[in-house]
Amino acid sequence: MWYLCVFYHRLLDYRRPEVEALAELFGAFRENGNDSPSCSLEWKLPESHHPDSPFHLVNLPSEDIARSIANRSILVKGIYELWGEGSSYEDLEVAIKSYPDERKLPYLTPESTFKITVDSFGKVINFNEQNERIKGLAYIPFKGRVNLRNPDHKFWLMETDDYGSQNGLPPVVEKRIFFGREVGAADRKLLPTYQLKSRSYLGPTAMDAEMAFLMANQALAMPGKLVYDPFVGTGSILVAAAHFGAMTMGADIDIRVVRDGRGPDCNIWSNFKQYRLPMPISLLRADNNLPPWRPGLKEVFDAIICDPPYGVRAGGRKSGGRKLLKGAVDPYTVPDDKRTDHIPSTAPYSLVECVHDLLDLAARMLVMGGRLVFFYPVLREDGSTDTVFPEHPCFRLVAACEQILSLRYSRILLTMVKTAPYSEEIAVSARQKHLDFKENHVKWLEDGNLHSAVFSPIDREGDTAGDYKSNKDSKPKYRGKYV
Q1: Residue 141 CB-half CA count within 13 A
Q2: What are the percentages of helix, strand and coil residues in the chain, rounded to 5?
Q3: Closest C-alpha among 58, 98, 97, 110 to residue 81
Q4: pTM for the structure as a whole
Q5: pLDDT at residue 327, as a whole number
Protein backbone atom coordinates (compact mmCIF):
# COMPACT_ATOMS: atom_id res chain seq x y z
CA MET A 1 0.00 0.00 0.00
CA TRP A 2 1.19 3.53 -0.76
CA TYR A 3 1.87 5.82 2.21
CA LEU A 4 2.86 9.47 2.45
CA CYS A 5 6.28 9.72 4.08
CA VAL A 6 7.16 13.19 5.36
CA PHE A 7 10.81 13.83 6.23
CA TYR A 8 12.51 16.44 8.34
CA HIS A 9 14.31 18.83 6.02
CA ARG A 10 17.76 17.62 7.07
CA LEU A 11 20.54 15.40 5.72
CA LEU A 12 18.77 14.90 2.41
CA ASP A 13 21.03 12.09 1.17
CA TYR A 14 20.36 10.05 4.31
CA ARG A 15 16.56 10.03 4.26
CA ARG A 16 15.61 7.28 1.83
CA PRO A 17 18.53 4.97 2.77
CA GLU A 18 17.47 5.10 6.43
CA VAL A 19 13.92 4.07 5.54
CA GLU A 20 15.26 1.32 3.24
CA ALA A 21 17.44 -0.03 6.05
CA LEU A 22 14.60 0.01 8.58
CA ALA A 23 12.28 -1.66 6.06
CA GLU A 24 14.77 -4.53 5.88
CA LEU A 25 15.10 -4.60 9.66
CA PHE A 26 11.34 -4.95 10.13
CA GLY A 27 10.87 -7.57 7.39
CA ALA A 28 9.28 -5.54 4.60
CA PHE A 29 10.96 -7.60 1.90
CA ARG A 30 10.13 -10.92 3.57
CA GLU A 31 6.44 -9.98 3.57
CA ASN A 32 6.76 -9.36 -0.15
CA GLY A 33 8.02 -12.92 -0.48
CA ASN A 34 11.47 -11.83 -1.59
CA ASP A 35 14.51 -12.23 0.67
CA SER A 36 17.01 -10.99 -1.90
CA PRO A 37 19.52 -8.53 -0.39
CA SER A 38 19.07 -6.30 -3.43
CA CYS A 39 15.44 -5.56 -2.57
CA SER A 40 14.49 -1.91 -2.32
CA LEU A 41 11.34 0.05 -1.74
CA GLU A 42 9.27 1.66 -4.45
CA TRP A 43 9.18 5.47 -4.20
CA LYS A 44 7.25 8.22 -5.97
CA LEU A 45 7.25 12.00 -5.71
CA PRO A 46 4.01 13.96 -5.38
CA GLU A 47 3.02 15.94 -8.45
CA SER A 48 5.23 19.00 -9.11
CA HIS A 49 7.63 18.18 -6.26
CA HIS A 50 11.42 18.39 -6.36
CA PRO A 51 13.46 15.30 -5.26
CA ASP A 52 14.67 17.30 -2.26
CA SER A 53 11.09 17.85 -1.10
CA PRO A 54 10.25 16.41 2.33
CA PHE A 55 7.13 14.76 0.86
CA HIS A 56 7.58 11.31 -0.67
CA LEU A 57 5.24 8.43 -1.44
CA VAL A 58 6.50 4.97 -0.47
CA ASN A 59 5.01 1.53 -1.05
CA LEU A 60 5.08 -0.60 2.13
CA PRO A 61 3.57 -4.06 2.63
CA SER A 62 1.67 -3.35 5.85
CA GLU A 63 0.67 -0.65 8.30
CA ASP A 64 2.57 -2.38 11.11
CA ILE A 65 5.83 -2.10 9.16
CA ALA A 66 5.09 1.53 8.28
CA ARG A 67 4.49 2.31 11.96
CA SER A 68 7.67 0.52 13.06
CA ILE A 69 9.76 2.42 10.50
CA ALA A 70 8.31 5.79 11.48
CA ASN A 71 8.68 5.20 15.22
CA ARG A 72 12.32 4.11 14.92
CA SER A 73 13.50 6.58 12.28
CA ILE A 74 15.49 9.72 13.04
CA LEU A 75 14.69 11.64 9.83
CA VAL A 76 11.05 10.62 9.22
CA LYS A 77 8.64 13.16 10.66
CA GLY A 78 5.69 10.89 10.07
CA ILE A 79 4.16 8.25 7.82
CA TYR A 80 0.50 8.72 6.87
CA GLU A 81 -2.32 6.83 5.22
CA LEU A 82 -3.11 9.37 2.52
CA TRP A 83 -6.85 9.99 2.24
CA GLY A 84 -6.55 12.66 -0.41
CA GLU A 85 -4.38 15.29 -2.08
CA GLY A 86 -4.89 18.11 -4.52
CA SER A 87 -3.70 21.48 -5.75
CA SER A 88 -6.68 23.23 -4.08
CA TYR A 89 -9.08 22.55 -1.23
CA GLU A 90 -11.81 21.78 -3.76
CA ASP A 91 -9.62 19.08 -5.32
CA LEU A 92 -8.79 17.79 -1.84
CA GLU A 93 -12.50 17.46 -0.98
CA VAL A 94 -13.16 15.47 -4.14
CA ALA A 95 -10.22 13.16 -3.41
CA ILE A 96 -11.23 12.52 0.22
CA LYS A 97 -14.84 11.81 -0.70
CA SER A 98 -13.71 9.31 -3.32
CA TYR A 99 -11.42 7.50 -0.86
CA PRO A 100 -13.04 4.12 0.00
CA ASP A 101 -15.44 4.27 2.96
CA GLU A 102 -14.22 0.93 4.27
CA ARG A 103 -10.81 2.59 4.77
CA LYS A 104 -12.21 5.73 6.45
CA LEU A 105 -15.16 4.67 8.60
CA PRO A 106 -13.24 2.54 11.18
CA TYR A 107 -11.50 5.74 12.32
CA LEU A 108 -14.63 7.92 12.44
CA THR A 109 -16.73 5.94 14.96
CA PRO A 110 -18.62 7.66 17.84
CA GLU A 111 -16.60 5.87 20.56
CA SER A 112 -13.23 7.05 19.21
CA THR A 113 -11.31 10.27 19.86
CA PHE A 114 -9.37 12.24 17.30
CA LYS A 115 -7.17 15.26 16.67
CA ILE A 116 -6.48 17.25 13.48
CA THR A 117 -3.13 19.01 13.09
CA VAL A 118 -2.45 21.62 10.40
CA ASP A 119 1.11 21.75 9.14
CA SER A 120 2.91 23.46 6.28
CA PHE A 121 6.20 23.57 4.40
CA GLY A 122 7.56 26.79 2.92
CA LYS A 123 5.02 29.04 4.61
CA VAL A 124 3.58 29.92 8.02
CA ILE A 125 -0.09 29.37 8.86
CA ASN A 126 -1.33 31.35 11.87
CA PHE A 127 -3.74 29.98 14.47
CA ASN A 128 -6.88 31.54 12.97
CA GLU A 129 -6.03 30.21 9.51
CA GLN A 130 -5.50 26.76 10.97
CA ASN A 131 -8.96 26.83 12.56
CA GLU A 132 -10.52 27.91 9.27
CA ARG A 133 -8.86 25.02 7.46
CA ILE A 134 -10.07 22.54 10.06
CA LYS A 135 -13.65 23.87 9.80
CA GLY A 136 -13.39 23.41 6.04
CA LEU A 137 -13.12 19.65 6.62
CA ALA A 138 -16.73 19.45 7.86
CA TYR A 139 -17.59 17.14 4.95
CA ILE A 140 -15.60 14.35 6.68
CA PRO A 141 -18.14 12.55 8.95
CA PHE A 142 -16.21 12.65 12.24
CA LYS A 143 -18.51 11.20 14.95
CA GLY A 144 -16.04 10.85 17.81
CA ARG A 145 -14.84 13.39 20.36
CA VAL A 146 -11.90 15.74 19.99
CA ASN A 147 -8.98 14.91 22.28
CA LEU A 148 -5.93 17.11 21.85
CA ARG A 149 -3.72 15.32 24.39
CA ASN A 150 -4.08 11.60 23.79
CA PRO A 151 -6.39 10.89 20.86
CA ASP A 152 -7.04 7.45 19.43
CA HIS A 153 -6.46 8.75 15.90
CA LYS A 154 -4.37 11.65 14.63
CA PHE A 155 -5.10 13.34 11.32
CA TRP A 156 -2.84 15.79 9.50
CA LEU A 157 -3.64 18.50 6.99
CA MET A 158 -0.38 19.51 5.28
CA GLU A 159 0.24 21.96 2.49
CA THR A 160 3.09 23.44 0.51
CA ASP A 161 3.08 26.91 -1.00
CA ASP A 162 3.52 27.66 -4.69
CA TYR A 163 6.68 29.66 -4.04
CA GLY A 164 8.64 28.36 -7.04
CA SER A 165 12.35 28.68 -6.36
CA GLN A 166 12.25 32.03 -4.52
CA ASN A 167 12.03 30.79 -0.93
CA GLY A 168 15.43 29.14 -0.43
CA LEU A 169 13.71 25.74 -0.35
CA PRO A 170 13.27 22.91 -2.86
CA PRO A 171 11.19 24.43 -5.66
CA VAL A 172 7.48 23.61 -5.89
CA VAL A 173 5.73 24.51 -9.13
CA GLU A 174 2.25 24.63 -7.65
CA LYS A 175 0.56 24.42 -4.28
CA ARG A 176 -0.13 20.90 -2.97
CA ILE A 177 -2.38 19.88 -0.08
CA PHE A 178 -2.39 16.50 1.68
CA PHE A 179 -4.77 15.00 4.23
CA GLY A 180 -4.14 11.70 5.94
CA ARG A 181 -4.21 9.60 9.08
CA GLU A 182 -0.99 9.33 11.05
CA VAL A 183 0.34 5.78 11.08
CA GLY A 184 3.54 6.50 13.00
CA ALA A 185 5.86 9.37 13.91
CA ALA A 186 9.50 9.70 14.91
CA ASP A 187 10.53 10.31 18.49
CA ARG A 188 13.00 13.18 18.14
CA LYS A 189 13.04 13.65 21.91
CA LEU A 190 15.86 11.14 22.20
CA LEU A 191 18.24 13.56 20.44
CA PRO A 192 18.16 16.18 23.25
CA THR A 193 18.50 13.31 25.72
CA TYR A 194 21.70 12.08 24.05
CA GLN A 195 23.12 15.44 22.96
CA LEU A 196 26.88 15.69 23.29
CA LYS A 197 26.93 18.77 25.51
CA SER A 198 25.32 16.76 28.32
CA ARG A 199 27.54 13.68 27.83
CA SER A 200 29.66 12.62 30.82
CA TYR A 201 32.77 11.70 28.82
CA LEU A 202 33.49 13.56 25.61
CA GLY A 203 36.42 13.70 23.20
CA PRO A 204 37.29 15.90 20.21
CA THR A 205 36.07 13.29 17.70
CA ALA A 206 32.84 12.24 19.46
CA MET A 207 30.11 11.46 16.94
CA ASP A 208 27.06 13.75 16.96
CA ALA A 209 24.04 12.00 18.50
CA GLU A 210 21.81 12.35 15.41
CA MET A 211 24.48 10.90 13.14
CA ALA A 212 25.28 8.10 15.58
CA PHE A 213 21.63 7.01 15.60
CA LEU A 214 21.51 7.14 11.81
CA MET A 215 24.59 4.92 11.65
CA ALA A 216 23.01 2.47 14.09
CA ASN A 217 19.88 2.35 11.93
CA GLN A 218 21.95 1.71 8.80
CA ALA A 219 23.64 -1.16 10.64
CA LEU A 220 20.25 -2.63 11.66
CA ALA A 221 21.15 -2.54 15.38
CA MET A 222 18.61 -4.45 17.47
CA PRO A 223 18.42 -6.79 20.48
CA GLY A 224 20.45 -9.97 20.01
CA LYS A 225 22.95 -8.44 17.58
CA LEU A 226 26.62 -7.79 18.39
CA VAL A 227 27.99 -4.46 17.17
CA TYR A 228 31.72 -3.66 17.09
CA ASP A 229 33.53 -0.31 16.75
CA PRO A 230 37.29 -0.67 16.09
CA PHE A 231 37.86 3.08 16.65
CA VAL A 232 35.65 3.43 19.70
CA GLY A 233 37.03 6.67 21.15
CA THR A 234 34.55 7.88 23.77
CA GLY A 235 31.90 5.38 22.65
CA SER A 236 29.30 7.66 21.02
CA ILE A 237 28.44 5.21 18.24
CA LEU A 238 28.14 2.27 20.62
CA VAL A 239 25.85 4.31 22.88
CA ALA A 240 23.40 4.68 19.96
CA ALA A 241 23.61 0.97 19.12
CA ALA A 242 23.03 0.05 22.78
CA HIS A 243 19.97 2.32 22.89
CA PHE A 244 18.41 0.09 20.24
CA GLY A 245 19.19 -3.00 22.32
CA ALA A 246 22.32 -4.30 20.58
CA MET A 247 25.23 -5.86 22.45
CA THR A 248 28.33 -3.74 21.95
CA MET A 249 32.09 -4.14 21.86
CA GLY A 250 34.82 -1.62 21.07
CA ALA A 251 38.54 -1.16 20.62
CA ASP A 252 40.96 1.74 20.40
CA ILE A 253 44.71 1.99 19.93
CA ASP A 254 45.01 4.52 22.78
CA ILE A 255 44.98 2.57 26.04
CA ARG A 256 44.38 5.78 27.98
CA VAL A 257 40.99 6.14 26.27
CA VAL A 258 39.63 2.64 26.91
CA ARG A 259 41.22 2.09 30.32
CA ASP A 260 41.55 5.42 32.08
CA GLY A 261 39.37 8.12 30.54
CA ARG A 262 39.44 11.12 32.86
CA GLY A 263 39.04 9.14 36.04
CA PRO A 264 36.81 6.44 37.55
CA ASP A 265 33.64 8.51 37.04
CA CYS A 266 34.47 9.97 33.64
CA ASN A 267 35.17 7.31 31.02
CA ILE A 268 33.44 5.26 28.35
CA TRP A 269 31.68 3.16 30.97
CA SER A 270 30.20 6.26 32.62
CA ASN A 271 28.54 7.22 29.31
CA PHE A 272 26.60 3.96 29.37
CA LYS A 273 25.79 4.40 33.07
CA GLN A 274 24.50 7.91 32.38
CA TYR A 275 21.80 6.59 30.01
CA ARG A 276 21.24 3.32 31.93
CA LEU A 277 22.28 1.28 28.92
CA PRO A 278 23.77 -2.23 28.94
CA MET A 279 27.53 -2.06 29.36
CA PRO A 280 29.78 -3.11 26.45
CA ILE A 281 30.80 -6.75 26.51
CA SER A 282 34.41 -5.64 26.29
CA LEU A 283 36.62 -2.67 25.46
CA LEU A 284 40.03 -3.57 24.04
CA ARG A 285 43.29 -1.79 23.50
CA ALA A 286 43.80 -3.01 19.96
CA ASP A 287 45.36 -1.86 16.71
CA ASN A 288 43.25 -2.04 13.54
CA ASN A 289 46.49 -2.71 11.66
CA LEU A 290 47.34 -5.69 13.93
CA PRO A 291 43.96 -7.16 14.97
CA PRO A 292 44.09 -9.26 18.13
CA TRP A 293 41.81 -12.08 16.98
CA ARG A 294 43.16 -15.60 17.09
CA PRO A 295 43.69 -17.38 13.74
CA GLY A 296 40.56 -19.13 12.54
CA LEU A 297 38.16 -16.91 14.47
CA LYS A 298 35.61 -15.47 12.06
CA GLU A 299 32.00 -14.39 11.59
CA VAL A 300 31.49 -13.05 15.11
CA PHE A 301 29.92 -9.62 14.62
CA ASP A 302 26.52 -8.72 13.16
CA ALA A 303 27.65 -5.18 12.36
CA ILE A 304 30.77 -3.03 12.42
CA ILE A 305 30.12 0.70 12.77
CA CYS A 306 32.92 3.22 12.95
CA ASP A 307 34.33 6.61 12.04
CA PRO A 308 37.91 5.86 10.90
CA PRO A 309 40.55 8.51 11.64
CA TYR A 310 41.20 10.32 8.38
CA GLY A 311 43.29 13.26 9.52
CA VAL A 312 40.91 16.21 9.88
CA ARG A 313 40.28 16.33 13.62
CA ALA A 314 42.60 13.43 14.46
CA GLY A 315 45.13 11.43 12.47
CA GLY A 316 45.31 7.66 12.31
CA ARG A 317 47.92 5.79 14.34
CA LYS A 318 49.22 2.25 14.21
CA SER A 319 51.59 0.28 16.42
CA GLY A 320 55.34 0.30 15.94
CA GLY A 321 56.79 3.78 16.03
CA ARG A 322 58.69 5.43 13.19
CA LYS A 323 62.13 4.06 14.12
CA LEU A 324 60.82 0.52 14.59
CA LEU A 325 58.95 0.50 11.29
CA LYS A 326 62.00 1.86 9.45
CA GLY A 327 64.25 -0.78 10.99
CA ALA A 328 66.36 1.78 12.85
CA VAL A 329 65.76 -0.05 16.14
CA ASP A 330 65.05 -3.68 16.91
CA PRO A 331 61.76 -4.98 18.32
CA TYR A 332 61.72 -4.74 22.06
CA THR A 333 60.02 -6.45 24.99
CA VAL A 334 58.46 -4.37 27.74
CA PRO A 335 59.82 -5.37 31.18
CA ASP A 336 57.24 -6.86 33.52
CA ASP A 337 57.64 -4.09 36.09
CA LYS A 338 56.71 -1.44 33.48
CA ARG A 339 53.81 -3.18 31.73
CA THR A 340 51.11 -1.59 33.90
CA ASP A 341 51.85 1.98 32.86
CA HIS A 342 53.48 1.34 29.50
CA ILE A 343 52.03 3.25 26.53
CA PRO A 344 53.10 1.55 23.27
CA SER A 345 54.75 3.68 20.62
CA THR A 346 52.80 4.42 17.44
CA ALA A 347 53.38 5.70 13.92
CA PRO A 348 51.18 7.49 11.34
CA TYR A 349 48.48 5.33 9.77
CA SER A 350 47.39 6.45 6.30
CA LEU A 351 43.73 6.39 5.38
CA VAL A 352 44.23 4.09 2.39
CA GLU A 353 45.89 1.50 4.65
CA CYS A 354 43.30 2.01 7.38
CA VAL A 355 40.38 1.41 5.00
CA HIS A 356 42.00 -1.71 3.56
CA ASP A 357 42.51 -3.14 7.07
CA LEU A 358 38.94 -2.24 8.01
CA LEU A 359 37.48 -4.03 4.98
CA ASP A 360 39.66 -7.07 5.63
CA LEU A 361 38.58 -7.13 9.29
CA ALA A 362 34.91 -6.87 8.31
CA ALA A 363 35.25 -9.59 5.66
CA ARG A 364 36.67 -11.96 8.27
CA MET A 365 34.57 -11.09 11.30
CA LEU A 366 31.10 -10.18 10.00
CA VAL A 367 28.42 -12.82 9.67
CA MET A 368 26.89 -13.33 6.23
CA GLY A 369 24.47 -10.47 5.65
CA GLY A 370 26.23 -8.39 8.31
CA ARG A 371 26.73 -4.69 7.69
CA LEU A 372 29.80 -2.48 7.65
CA VAL A 373 28.94 1.20 8.19
CA PHE A 374 31.71 3.79 8.14
CA PHE A 375 32.52 7.33 7.07
CA TYR A 376 34.76 8.00 4.11
CA PRO A 377 36.17 11.49 3.37
CA VAL A 378 36.00 13.22 0.00
CA LEU A 379 38.24 16.13 -0.94
CA ARG A 380 37.01 17.91 -4.05
CA GLU A 381 40.12 19.82 -5.02
CA ASP A 382 38.95 20.45 -8.58
CA GLY A 383 35.22 20.77 -7.94
CA SER A 384 34.63 17.24 -9.23
CA THR A 385 31.67 15.27 -7.93
CA ASP A 386 33.04 11.90 -9.05
CA THR A 387 33.98 9.72 -6.10
CA VAL A 388 35.84 6.41 -6.12
CA PHE A 389 34.90 4.20 -3.18
CA PRO A 390 37.01 1.35 -1.78
CA GLU A 391 35.81 -2.10 -2.84
CA HIS A 392 36.05 -5.65 -1.52
CA PRO A 393 34.91 -8.93 -3.13
CA CYS A 394 32.97 -9.89 0.02
CA PHE A 395 30.82 -6.76 0.07
CA ARG A 396 28.10 -5.02 -1.87
CA LEU A 397 27.58 -1.27 -1.43
CA VAL A 398 23.95 -0.57 -0.55
CA ALA A 399 24.05 3.13 0.39
CA ALA A 400 26.37 6.11 0.06
CA CYS A 401 25.05 9.21 1.87
CA GLU A 402 26.99 12.45 1.55
CA GLN A 403 27.25 15.19 4.15
CA ILE A 404 28.90 18.37 2.84
CA LEU A 405 31.01 19.99 5.55
CA SER A 406 32.71 22.75 3.55
CA LEU A 407 33.25 23.90 -0.03
CA ARG A 408 36.23 21.59 -0.38
CA TYR A 409 35.47 18.70 1.92
CA SER A 410 32.64 16.28 2.63
CA ARG A 411 32.22 12.89 4.18
CA ILE A 412 30.17 10.01 2.88
CA LEU A 413 28.53 7.36 5.02
CA LEU A 414 29.08 4.04 3.27
CA THR A 415 26.91 1.04 4.09
CA MET A 416 28.14 -2.33 2.83
CA VAL A 417 26.54 -5.75 3.19
CA LYS A 418 28.60 -8.94 3.35
CA THR A 419 27.47 -11.17 0.49
CA ALA A 420 30.31 -13.72 0.17
CA PRO A 421 32.33 -15.80 2.68
CA TYR A 422 35.94 -14.90 3.39
CA SER A 423 38.68 -17.15 1.94
CA GLU A 424 42.35 -16.94 1.02
CA GLU A 425 41.40 -16.42 -2.63
CA ILE A 426 39.15 -13.57 -1.58
CA ALA A 427 42.01 -12.08 0.44
CA VAL A 428 44.33 -12.10 -2.60
CA SER A 429 41.66 -10.49 -4.78
CA ALA A 430 40.96 -7.87 -2.10
CA ARG A 431 44.66 -7.04 -1.87
CA GLN A 432 44.79 -6.41 -5.61
CA LYS A 433 41.73 -4.15 -5.42
CA HIS A 434 43.45 -2.28 -2.61
CA LEU A 435 46.62 -1.77 -4.67
CA ASP A 436 44.59 -0.54 -7.65
CA PHE A 437 42.64 1.83 -5.42
CA LYS A 438 45.85 3.10 -3.81
CA GLU A 439 47.53 3.66 -7.18
CA ASN A 440 44.64 5.45 -8.84
CA HIS A 441 43.47 7.69 -6.02
CA VAL A 442 44.64 11.09 -4.85
CA LYS A 443 47.83 11.66 -2.90
CA TRP A 444 46.30 12.81 0.39
CA LEU A 445 44.90 9.32 0.95
CA GLU A 446 48.40 7.90 1.18
CA ASP A 447 49.95 10.85 3.03
CA GLY A 448 47.09 10.99 5.53
CA ASN A 449 47.40 14.79 5.51
CA LEU A 450 43.77 15.66 4.88
CA HIS A 451 43.75 18.41 7.53
CA SER A 452 46.16 20.69 5.66
CA ALA A 453 44.41 19.96 2.36
CA VAL A 454 41.03 20.95 3.80
CA PHE A 455 42.05 24.05 5.71
CA SER A 456 44.83 25.51 3.54
CA PRO A 457 43.96 28.12 0.88
CA ILE A 458 43.47 26.90 -2.67
CA ASP A 459 46.77 27.52 -4.41
CA ARG A 460 46.10 26.21 -7.86
CA GLU A 461 47.49 28.45 -10.57
CA GLY A 462 44.95 30.95 -11.84
CA ASP A 463 42.33 29.94 -9.30
CA THR A 464 41.01 31.68 -6.23
CA ALA A 465 38.67 30.72 -3.45
CA GLY A 466 35.97 32.83 -5.09
CA ASP A 467 36.42 31.11 -8.44
CA TYR A 468 36.27 27.75 -6.74
CA LYS A 469 33.08 28.65 -4.93
CA SER A 470 31.37 29.80 -8.09
CA ASN A 471 32.50 26.85 -10.20
CA LYS A 472 31.88 24.08 -7.68
CA ASP A 473 29.07 21.73 -8.59
CA SER A 474 27.82 21.31 -5.03
CA LYS A 475 24.65 20.13 -3.37
CA PRO A 476 21.70 22.58 -3.26
CA LYS A 477 22.01 25.08 -0.44
CA TYR A 478 18.75 25.75 1.39
CA ARG A 479 18.37 28.75 3.71
CA GLY A 480 22.10 29.18 4.07
CA LYS A 481 22.86 25.63 5.22
CA TYR A 482 24.05 22.51 3.49
CA VAL A 483 21.62 19.73 4.32
Answers
A1: 8
A2: 30, 25, 45
A3: 58
A4: 0.88
A5: 65
